[in-house]
Amino acid sequence: MVIKKNMKPVGIIIMILLSLIAYVQPGRNVSWALEEQSWYEAISPEWGGHVRAQGMTSRPDDKSIYSIVGARTYYDGMGDFRLKNRTFFGDRVYFETHYEISVLGGDTRRKQRELIRLLPFIDTGLMQRVEPVSDDRRFMDLTSVIDETDDTVFYHRLDRLLLALQFERGMVRVGRQALTWGNGLLFNPMDLFNPFAPTDLIRDYKVGDDMITAQFEAEGVGEFQFLYVPRRDPISSEVEWDNSSLASKFHVSMGSTEFDIMGARHYKDFVAGFGSTGYLFDSAWRMDLTWTFQDEGSERDGFLSLVANIDYSWIWLEKNFYGFVEFYYSGIGEKEFLKAAEKEDIVQRIGRGELFTLCRTYLAGEIQAELHPLLNIYFTVINNLNDGSRTVQPRAIWDVTNDIQLIVGGNIYYGKTGTEYGGFEIPVLELMIEPTNNAFMALTYFF
Questions:
Q1: Whole-model pTM?
Q2: Does position 9 have pLDDT exceeding 50, yes or no?
């Protein structure tokens, strides 16, 4: 591993952590359990995890690019095993690991491989690729492919690997972990570092990133959070400051309203953010906005991103209902989908996994109905207000037992040719690259 000399933010992080430790220790009655009992008595492991089997079926359109290799009904599957451990060394220190072993593949993966061989000049970046998680940008490479064919890929990885130090008024965590900033329900512009895609339906775990995080509470003031995410350049494999992130956030409550103020150096950009949550009658509202100051090589000096939502729960026909509406504005997006797909600033962010939309304005909503305490149905719609295309996601979640959960759902895409969810035509071939409607079923056993 080569770390360049310009990685000065590492020193800043070390100073922050040392300051935090100095803040929480003197005169604050911090007692380490390891000093009060034998080392083996202080060790307390906790185990858990899940086994999941998921199947999906999809049917590409006859005008889809898949028609070259046979547009028929495709069947795909995934198996996932996650083993979680958190070992406490007294009351103040714990070590956490999540080991994951997965197999995925099927017809879609095989057909995509055939397409790439037949049409190497076609950009398949907008396809929903069937590939394992990559650690190319992460500080630690903790993913290994066990076996790979055109049909399937079998791999394992460590999705969490961290050491945590807990103090009376704070915590420091070092290693692979997950962190969420921001108040968005589907879209989250303040969550720059490892966000969920707005179309993700199973959100048990975020993919972990290698980072140093610290948080502490200043009595009578608020809560401070810091993070540093070192990343590698995917070409040179070296840790680069221009590929890393350094950020801080301040959280404060004033009555029933809460506020967040964020500042970050993210890749080559500086990002300032402000968020707030509160209540309006019986509803809860949330709002985040960020301004990104882009570097000199970008197409514009900066852009605004904004998300605002409101949710409400009610009883109707003696059933519990919940719903929300969310508006999202992406200042880096374009009003026309085809123009957005050609913008380097957008393509880079999609490749880094921090942006999932191409256009500028979106309106989303969801309704949840509790038909039974163990059975809930959901209906989510994401509308692209610029081109009129949309995604519809119906699903049902049944808690079969305390340990077994069944999810049945689907993704339905609407839109004209040349729209984000309708797809676009390849002029020479007169075929479409478009998202494919699908249905899925996931059965999970938790332990």
A1: 0.87
A2: no
